Amino acid sequence: MRSRQEPRRVSNGVIIAAMLLSLCVLSIVKARYCSTPFAKPDDPLQEQMNSSIRMETDEPASKAAGEQEEEQEEESPATGGGAVPEVSTTTPTAVAGGGKGKPTCFMTSKRSERCEARGDIRVEGNASTIYIGGINKEWKTKPYARYHDPVAMAYVREFTLKPADEFAPACTKNHSVPAFVFSNGGFSGNLYHDYTDVLVPLFLSTHQFKGEVQFLLSGLKPWWVNKFTLFFRQLTKYDILDIDNDRDVHCFPRIVVGATFHKDMGVDPARSPGHVSVVDFKRALRRAFGLERAAASRGGATGNGKPRLLIISRKNSRRFLNEREMAQAAAAMGFDVRIAEPDQHTDMSTFARLVNSADVMIGVHGAGLTNMVFLPRGAVLIQVVPFGGLEWLTSVTFKNPAKDMEVTYMDYNINLQESSLLDQYPRNHQVLTDPYAVHKQGGWDALKTAYLDKQNIRMDLDRFKKTLQEALDRLPPA
């Protein structure tokens, strides 16, 4: 019996080995000869690029960093900042201050760490130190929701959570409400990062306090606080403390250091306190800036029956080269057209009301599209996607958040004939023929240089008008 089974086993093994060998050969052949010139980037590459997404400002590089009302992408390092600490997670259910060990610090996502404690809490702000009763180990943390990006985190001040032993400083000011520590270091000052790294996580983390919370802001820039003061008043009844420069020892019954992050420009209601969503965040913005218009329509908000088109203009890279012709074509179609170019000097309330009056908003990928947070429900956002295989980038930043914000999203993907890159490179140059190879070889810096910094747009007016007609058809009826 054994002699008859063994040849059969050998025969089956040979067949299986042959099949596996064939699959390996086919995989190698496909990878070498069947790849398309505009294939999607490899998953590890896309993950690397996603970790490097930074919204570029449209401000001249010659402006001095640290100038009042500056909105440069990267700010000068705050005193006491350092390298991003290596983080070990603990469970969010542990009670800090209620037992031995380190304070309760846990990663709410790969982008954000949140530390919580109750009891004897003493904050010595100008020493970047928080003393906590009932713990026996130190912990270091940075209260900014971009932990995956060491470039950003290098500009965020680090706080040390220490045991409140007999050497801890005595309280000089006592508070009866919880404290919440956050930072406007990192890339804040760029509108996109203001919202995705700071304001949305701040709302998510503090709305449940119903105003009874004291904000302690690290890296405070007065112009930045003034810009969003009306929004902060929706979350706290108390003036924000400049904690880095405060010489008092503030004592609190509870403290939270660092905001919870769910996703870019978004909130996951299933994981948020009270199951709030980004629509609730938009509602808070509407209250803050006095925005009266709740919904868009084909009849517009002007009372003359015309839907309003807002063109977001840019003055440096990714400019519309035929912006005036675009406005004329849209007006001929029956739109009430407005062109606006927001910058660091733009009054937030005024611009918010302008965006809220729009039924359709169009702009090239960039921080200015962040103003979609002010669009009324049912409005249409048209993101003009520059040439260069940037669909994954434009999806993460604006396409994906739009749906949750109750905004109808449309892409306008630039073809090569509409791009100024055609005037800068020969037709057989890799920048034009194989964008993903550029991405893969040079990473974020190569992508930014080739496709974001050096590209302008001349819209095909026929395509543009067809896109506007589709947007008009998607608007709610008057």
From TrEMBL:
Glycosyltransferase 61 catalytic domain residues: 280-382
Membrane topology summary: Single-pass type II membrane protein
Position of the signal peptide: 1-31
Region: Disordered, residue numbers: 55-103
Superkingdom of the source species: Eukaryota
UniProt feature, compositional bias: Acidic residues: 67-76
Coiled-coil regions listed: none
Descriptive protein name: Glycosyltransferase 61 catalytic domain-containing protein
